[in-house]
Design goal:
The complex is a heterotrimer of chains A (119), B (482) and C (432). By secondary structure, chain A is an alpha+beta fold. Helices cover 17% and strands 38% of the residues of chain A. The chains are: A alpha+beta (119), B alpha+beta (482), C alpha/beta (432). Chains in contact: A-B, A-C, B-C.
Chain lengths: 119, 482, 432
């Protein structure tokens, strides 16, 4: 039996949720005060995901970097792989919001898109 | 062989340099830091004392009163901010009255003009926010506030304009008294940046002055760095008091002053803590507490609106007075040592006095083309709308605001960097223009000032420092370490 | 130059105010922005979490700003960039507000504005406000300065970082610095609770194993030239460091995230009445300051935690400014006025007065509490009668609260009263 302690982020209350797990399966969720907490806790312990926001280098622009994000969530444990993979990407100015910087980042099957308009 | 070598580009060294630059002499100022005004001169009360405090007959008394008069004139000819706001020494209990009367008498003997005692009612009228416990005060109308940075900078710039060489990042390591083939005494200086031979040494090295004195003399000096901590408050509370409020020393110790600064902030300080580390300009929780709690005794309510706190070191010599003059057993070696309060006020008078000694020793001729005046950096914050429009018309960079809190423009910053003895560091720009001195303390303008410095100095942004070697800001790019 | 409406600041508040004023039919609008682009601080807030209320999707800061900038461009609302307003004054006889500004193209110029919206935003509290002892070397940055360096310039302000203050920018920067290759050792917070949003604590600190030290502060900064380390100590209930709890952290950078202060230099020059609690102007239900036709919105009015609330507030200000312009000759209002008083844990409200005649059918009153409260009631009284009692699981200083006042309900209570001045009290109460 594995016990996981979480702070719910679905609303400002911030319930302390306790999840009991066995062989990777959720056995019980306690401490939440609404169904959203249960849903958060269950996805957080089985397949936690995050959107990664970072920067890539920009050539010939008014700034040397431009902001990007993963166009969807990536597995939480892949966050640092994503930013490391971004290190090798350089875009040519100008760039617009929504431009694709990478089709599949760090093997996550998720695109990386530009989030600023930079001339 | 140089004629004169001055150790230290603080306010004393710079004042001496400026006075000596009136003569045809080869003069060099050696400074261990990267700019003028980097030691005691940059971290003090910024007060121009009227001169009632020092014991009659002391050098402190003499040069204070003389210096006060000179600053009134020099602030105009050398264009640095000075305001004669007057000082009040408060007696916070009836027992203090005797002390106030003693100060009045002392001041009169020192030749301080227009001193008088004001009673509670008049005091309240002069300073509505003065503490209710104040029973009376000594009023010194010739007391004032000055920008300690720009006074120092003005002296140095004017000296440089008149031919004095300034060598920064040059730390004196040893001084040797020698006799030349002509039988005349000279001094050999080893520094971190080459060696120098010089007829005259002026020792204006602040908390290090005893070190250099003791290299050439058997009559030893001993200087204790005395730390003073300060809190600087927001301009919105700068009008809390109009005069500089001193406290009569009590059994609790020397008082904490509360004053408007010449730029309109409110300041409280200093503490007096002896230390044995001449580089220890750190503040402490106890020290800042003392400043705020004891400062609060002078006013009905001291607002807690500190925007920055800092500490400076005063050079306190064991004898308690300034040590100024040629050393008996080291002819041509002139001390300006133990320059603690009222050193800032006294500096121009010390400059005149030491220049006199040098003149008697070397008999130089007076420069015919001496440049008497110096123009400061225009200030958009203080300019009228007409002046602002004219400045922008002449140079559009004066419309581009870099420091929003203090309204300092790119034009002013460029001026500060490109002028005589221009700024080479972020702090150098700050002291010359006030960029970064406001309530956000450079949160916004730092990143905009660095590129201007880099451009004008022909350096990369990574090479731009806060205040000399090792004080770097940005290093490397994002993801370098991934 | 004459203008009906001058908006000072082209950040989220100024943009939303402009768009809303145009939607109300106002032609003559000018936005004055001091930076080189519109969008304000959002341009450097490249993290996501913006727009959930306004656009029902999660956007990054620059994306959120772009939505409004596009509307400003589409509506052809004029704006000046790189232009600094240096002064505003008020002429009581004409009602005109004289705005003095400067830029490199036009030099110094003045605009006579019939109405003005103050939308200058806020700035960060500096180190001095905390009186942190120690040396003053390079390497101490406000979190926002570090954010600018990293996100706009692509440069690293340091490699080994301690953060003081758990405001949202500090939390966000903990993650940003980690993503870009720095090591964040810890976040110290003087208070026993964080000033930031829960999800930022989880996603910016917990995700990366960065400890959050509550009731801790920096008691010493080492390094004469560049930061070499900081000493952190635990504090007691009076926020005083507890001797013996000091721990030294070797680092080259200290980031400060100790709160934001509305930037009201110009408001003070103009002479509007200020609220010492918020640091912003005192406003009525229309977000109008003490000077007729001058409105304030966004972080210059009071510091918000969500940009969506800024946009909402600014839209109201824009709408109200147009209403003012259309009925400028309307007689002085002498109807019922509700003064809002806060007590028992509620620090302030925006607005602080409500003129019933100008009140919309429902009015949002925003406020913050001064402490962390759990399982309390939020009680609202009008002229002594209870108007509402809302059970609250959690209220914290870091999260803005709001109540909705219903005009008809308020009218019902005050209709019988002889007095024209009424008092609304908002307070935190224990549950029975």
């Amino acid at each position: 039996m594995e016990i996981r302690e979480l702070t719910c982020i679905r609303c400002p209350i911030g319930c302390h949720i306790t999840v009991e797990m066995e062989n990777g399966e959720v056995k019980s969720i306690t401490g939440n005060s609404c169904p959203r907490g249960e849903e958060y806790a269950s996805s957080e312990v089985t397949h936690p995901e995050r959107t990664v926001t970072s920067l890539v280098r920009l050539k010939g622009g008014e700034r040397p970097v431009v902001s990007v994000k993963t166009d969807g969530n990536v597995p939480k444990e892949k966050m640092m792989d994503v930013v490391k993979a971004l290190k090798d990407i350089e875009l040519d100015a100008p760039v617009r919001i929504g431009d694709v910087a990478c089709e599949d980042i760090a093997g996550c099957g998720v695109r990386v898109v530009v989030t600023s308009n930079v001339g | 062989m140089k004629d004169v070598t001055i150790i230290g580009a603080g306010v004393t060294g710079s004042a001496v340099a400026r006075e000596l630059s009136k003569y045809d002499l080869e003069i060099t100022v050696l400074e261990k830091e990267s700019d003028v005004c980097e030691g005691t001169s940059k971290a003090n009360s910024g007060i121009v004392h009227s001169g009632y405090d020092a014991k009659p007959g002391t050098l402190k008394a003499r040069f204070n009163v003389e210096g006060n008069k000179l600053i009134h004139e020099l602030s105009k000819s050398l264009d640095f901010p000075f305001r004669e706001n007057g000082s009040l020494v408060l007696a916070l209990e009836e027992e203090g009255r005797a002390g106030i009367e003693e100060l009045l008498e002392r001041g009169r003997r020192n030749g301080v003009p227009d001193l008088r005692i004001v009673e509670r009612d008049e005091l309240k009228e002069m300073e509505p926010n003065v503490s209710d416990s104040a029973v009376c005060a000594l009023y010194a109308p010739t007391g004032g506030v000055v920008c300690p940075f720009n006074m120092n900078i003005a002296f140095a710039e004017n000296a440089a304009d008149n031919g004095v060489a300034f060598r920064f990042n040059t730390e004196v390591i040893s001084i040797e008294k020698k006799t030349g083939e002509d039988g005349r005494i000279f001094y050999h200086l080893e520094t971190s940046n080459g060696s120098f031979d010089t007829r005259i040494v002026v020792n204006a090295a602040g908390v290090y002055a005893d070190r250099f004195h003791n290299m050439v003399s058997e009559e030893k000096l001993h200087i204790t760095p005395r730390k003073g901590q300060y809190c600087l408050m927001d301009k919105t509370v700068g009008g809390l008091v109009k005069h500089t409020l001193f406290q009569l020393p009590t059994k609790l110790g020397k008082g904490i002053l509360v004053t408007p600064t010449v730029h309109g902030n409110l300041m409280a300080g200093p503490t007096a803590e002896d230390t044995d580390n001449p580089e220890d300009t750190s503040t402490t929780a106890e020290g800042l507490d003392t400043v705020l709690s004891r400062g609060a005794l002078s006013v009905s309510r001291l607002p807690r609106m500190t925007i920055t706190s800092f500490a400076g070191l005063r050079a306190h010599e064991d004898g308690g007075d300034f040590v100024i003059g040629e050393i008996k057993d080291a002819p041509g070696f002139i001390d300006a040592a133990g320059i603690e309060s009222p050193g800032l006020t006294a500096a121009p008078a010390i400059g005149v006095y030491i220049a006199g000694i040098v003149r008697d020793l070397l008999n130089p001729s007076e420069k015919k083309d001496f440049i008497r005046t110096r123009k400061g950096i225009p200030s958009m914050a203080l300019a009228t709308d007409e002046e602002r429009a004219a400045l922008i018309a002449a140079d559009p960079a004066y419309s581009h605001v870099i420091c929003r809190c203090e309204l300092v423009t790119e034009g002013e910053i460029r001026n500060a960097i490109t002028r005589t003895l221009g700024a080479t560091t972020v702090d150098g720009v700050k002291r010359r223009t006030r960029a970064g001195m406001g309530r956000c303390q450079a949160g916004f303008c730092l990143a905009r000032t660095i590129p201007i410095l880099a451009e004008l100095l022909g350096k990369s942004e990574e090479e731009i420092e806060k205040s000399g070697a090792g004080s770097y800001y940005v290093r490397g790019n994002i993801k370098d370490n991934l | 130059m004459k203008r009906d409406l001058v908006i000072i600041g082209g950040g989220p508040a100024g943009l939303a105010a402009a768009v809303s004023a145009r939607k109300e039919g106002l032609e003559d609008i000018l936005i004055i922005e001091r930076d080189t682009r519109l969008g304000g601080i959002l341009n450097q807030c490249i993290h996501n979490g913006f727009g959930l209320h306004t656009f029902k999707e999660e956007l990054t800061g620059p994306e959120y700003a772009a939505r409004y900038i596009t509307q400003v461009e589409d509506e052809k609302i004029p704006y000046l960039l790189d232009t600094m307003v240096v002064d505003i004054s008020y002429d009581e006889s004409t009602g005109d507000k004289k705005v003095t500004a400067m830029n490199s193209r036009d030099g110094l110029f003045t605009i006579d504005a019939r109405s003005v919206i103050l939308a200058m935003g806020c700035r960060e509290r500096p180190r001095g406000a905390l009186n942190i002892p120690g040396y003053r070397p390079a390497g101490i940055y406000s979190a926002g300065t570090a954010q600018y360096y990293v996100n706009m310039e692509g440069r690293m302000p340091g490699k080994k970082v301690v953060i003081l203050g758990s405001g949202d920018i500090g939390l966000i920067m903990a993650r940003r610095m980690t993503y870009e290759g720095a090591r964040v050792l810890c976040v110290a917070e003087l208070q026993p609770y964080s000033g930031g949003l829960k999800r930022n604590i989880v996603q910016c600190l917990d995700d990366f194993g960065i400890p959050l030290l509550l009731s801790h502060t920096v008691v010493d900064i080492m390094g004469k030239r560049r930061v070499e380390g900081v000493t952190i100590a635990e504090v007691d209930e009076n926020r005083k460091p507890i001797p013996g709890t000091e721990v030294f952290y070797e680092c080259d950078t200290l980031l400060l995230s100790c709160g934001l202060i509305p930037e009201n230099e110009l408001s003070n020059k103009l002479g509007v009445r200020m609220n010492p609690v918020t640091g912003g102007a005192v406003v009525n239900e229309s977000l109008e300051t003490s000077i007729p036709g001058v409105y304030a919105c966004g972080n210059v009015l009071h510091v918000h935690d969500l940009v969506d609330y800024v946009s909402g507030e600014a839209s109201e200000a824009g709408k109200n400014a147009v209403r003012f312009l259309k009925s400028e000759d309307a007689a002085e209002d002498d109807g019922d006025v509700i003064n809002i008083r806060t007590e028992n844990g509620v620090r302030y409200t925006v607005p602080s007065t409500v003129r019933i005649s100008k009140m919309p059918d429902t009015l949002t009153v925003r406020f913050r509490v001064g402490n962390e409260y759990r399982d309390k009631n939020l009680a609202v009284y009008l002229d002594g009668k209870q108007l509402m009692k809302l059970p609250k699981r959690v209220m914290a200083p870091g999260e803005m609260e709001q109540i909705i006042l219903v005009k008809s309900k308020a009218q019902e209570i005050i209709s019988g009263a002889e007095n024209r001045e009424h008092e609304l009290v908002i307070r935190v109460e224990d549950k029975e």
